[in-house]
Amino acid sequence: MSNQPPLTVVDLNGDAPCCAPLVQRRVPAETAAVLAPAFKALGDPVRLQLMSMIASAEGGEVCVCDLTPAFDLTGPTISHHLKTLREAGLVDAERRGTWVYYRVRPAILRQLAALLTVEPAAAR
Fold this sequence. Notes:
There is one protein chain. Helices cover 43% and strands 11% of the residues. The chain has helices spanning 29-42, 45-55, 64-67, 75-87, 106-116, and strands at residues 62-63, 91-96, 99-104. The protein has a 3-stranded antiparallel beta sheet. A hairpin with a 2-residue loop joins β2 and β3. α1 (29-42) packs antiparallel against α4 and α2 packs across α4 (75-87). The protein is elongated, with a radius of gyration of 16 Å.
């Protein structure tokens, strides 16, 4: 992941879809550049599992102390994966004392879902 600031061509915090589903129209290059890091971050099995655990957590957030034991990986490795999810804009983190709590950013998940929406052929 790059340390460059994210592009602002697409409002990843907005509720309106960024673009038409990719089965309807070509994704603009600028939009693809903004959304690709999120898809890339989710392309790792551990990060996909972490994202699922965070998104499905009761109360909408989960402590890193509850995430780490679920994997046969070291704490620093889990921290690396969580950092990748943060840098991709998929999750937010908040430190409370010793622990860090994670929650999903629903707007970007809606953007990704809208892009991947496949409507039945009859609906097109």
